[in-house]
Amino acid sequence: MTYQNTASHLESLISKEGSSWSAIDAEAAARMQLQNRFRTGLDIARYTAKIMREDMAAYDADPAQYTQSLGCWHGFIGQQKLISIKKHFGSTERRYLYLSGWMVAALRSEFGPLPDQSMHEKTSVPSLIGELYTFLKQADARELGGMFRDLDAAREKGDEMEAKRIENAIDNYETHVVPIIADIDAGFGNAEATYLLAKKMIEAGACALQIENQVSDEKQCGHQDGKVTVPHEDFLQKIRAIRYAFLELGVEDGVIVARTDSLGAGLTKQIAYVEEAGDLGDQYNSFLDCDEVDAADVKNGEVFISREGKLLRPKRLPSNLYQFRPGTGEDRCVLDCITSLQNGADLLWIETEKPHIGQIGGMVDRIREVVPNAKLVYNNSPSFNWTLNFRQQVYDAWQEEGRDVSNYERERLMNEKYDDTELAAEADERIRTFQKDAAAQAGIFHHLITLPTYHTAALSTDNLAKEYFGEAGMLGYVKGVQRKEIREGIACVKHQNMAGSDIGDDHKESFAGDAALKAGGAHNTMNQFAAG
């Protein structure tokens, strides 16, 4: 419904109520409706799921249409990210938010900072989803509020053409609300626990949930050692649980991202159940590191499996975990991915130890032999040393081409002395085009960075503290922060406005008319930034 139609509808509704509603202004109510387009988290989940599905189809047609996101640990950070995207690029198209379990654990737990091991409160995850969307909706309300003020000013000037232009802009307004891919870790328990948490996350607004095949109570960060995976059927139960949650809540096109940590996981907690030779359980067990034994050598307390008439003893650690044969990680990854897609997952996530397009693409090619439209969500992780990795990739490529690399030490390529070299320049160019190249060559539909704003917060705070508490004093803040905000057009320089003071003033005027005590008067110091 258009701005004018909304106002007309409310005018009719108000008039039916007679004098008791006579103080209600239809246009003010229409503005509030437009500033609150999404009434519930489920409205958001349904809206954003449709966006993701359209983006997935667009990528299938053209890999250049890949999508991106940054992980955000607070609603304000997510809000500022989307405001920045709209400012610099004019549209939020193909740009999402990522909710990182790592950052929830490190920054949002009541226990204090925790490692990424599913020890934080599970309710903190849907709480952050709700917080992110609260801030994104407030960004809409703030921006639309400015447009309403401009509309009133155009009307006061009698500029009908400008008023019509603004009304058209209001009718075609692009929201800051975008899809969130939310990390549900390993489900925080059994399949029922996964289902219950998934419902809370979807009700908060998540249209895409990412779940991994680690053991829930042994979960580790994807870039830490000691990862333990579960048999396929255990993982598939959780994928089905999430799908049931989406369907129950009416988000019929919700997106499930199945993550495999098998590439770096050398352990399993259990031997899979086998019904017949060659089934999924048997395939999982085939990767176990076993010793063939004679029945006469069986000892008390040992565990055995049989295969092809042979008695095998899986290698079991004192932790009661079983280990896989070395070198099987890639094969296990491929089987995990195929199995997940064949059982209800929509997208894949392969956690790798380095950002290497050839390695990722090789696995995707194998997966696509079975599932042709398989595509990935990929973690452009801060856990990778991108500089060193790509300099070594260039070094290896040059060496293979027969080029002279005698001026470089492969293990010391991070050293600053190489920063201005030809090798470093080529490595940086490969980093710059990594997302585009990986989307085209390795099936990556969505690129994300899990915890970038964790690092940017630390870096910017360090720079400010160094200056402010040093010789620069107040100039450290003014020169390093405020002056840059003004010159670069950072809306947050008017922090009262960003926090909602103008929205509140508009509401006060609607509620109290001339009696309203508004904050945004002539003496508001925020007016000092009017020229900024």
Question: What is the secondary structure topology, with strand pairs?
Answer:
Blueprint (H helix, E strand, L loop, with lengths): L2 H14 L9 H10 L5 H21 L5 E5 L3 H15 L5 E5 L1 H7 L16 H34 L2 H12 L8 E4 L7 H14 L3 E5 L15 E2 L2 H17 L6 E6 L6 E2 L11 H6 L4 E3 L12 E3 L2 E5 L7 E2 L5 H13 L5 E4 L6 H12 L7 E4 L6 H16 L20 H11 L1 H8 L2 E6 L2 H17 L5 H14 L7 H4 L2 H12 L20
Parallel strand pairs: 1-2, 1-14, 2-3, 3-4, 4-6, 5-7, 6-12, 13-14
Antiparallel strand pairs: 7-11, 8-10, 9-10
Helix pairs in contact: 1-2, 2-6, 4-6, 6-7, 6-8, 8-9, 11-12, 12-15, 13-14, 16-17
Describe the structure.
There is one protein chain. The protein is of the alpha/beta class and 532 residues long. It has a domain at 41-266 and 345-459: Phosphoenolpyruvate-binding domains (TIM Barrel, Alpha-Beta Barrel). It has helices spanning 3-16, 26-35, 41-61, 75-89, 101-107, 124-157, 160-171, 191-204, 232-248, 280-285, 329-341, 357-368, 386-401, 422-432, 434-441, 452-468, 474-487, 495-498, 501-512; strands at residues 67-71, 95-99, 180-183, 208-212, 228-229, 255-260, 267-268, 290-292, 305-307, 310-314, 322-323, 347-350, 376-379, 444-449. The chain has an 8-stranded parallel beta sheet. A 3-stranded mixed beta sheet has the order 5-7-11, with no helix packed on it. A 3-stranded antiparallel beta sheet has the order 8-10-9, with no helix packed on it. Helix 4 (75-89) links the parallel strand 1 (67-71) and strand 2. Helix 12 packs parallel to helix 15. The chain is globular and about 95 Å long. Mean pLDDT is 92; it is low at 221-225. It catalyses: D-threo-isocitrate = glyoxylate + succinate.
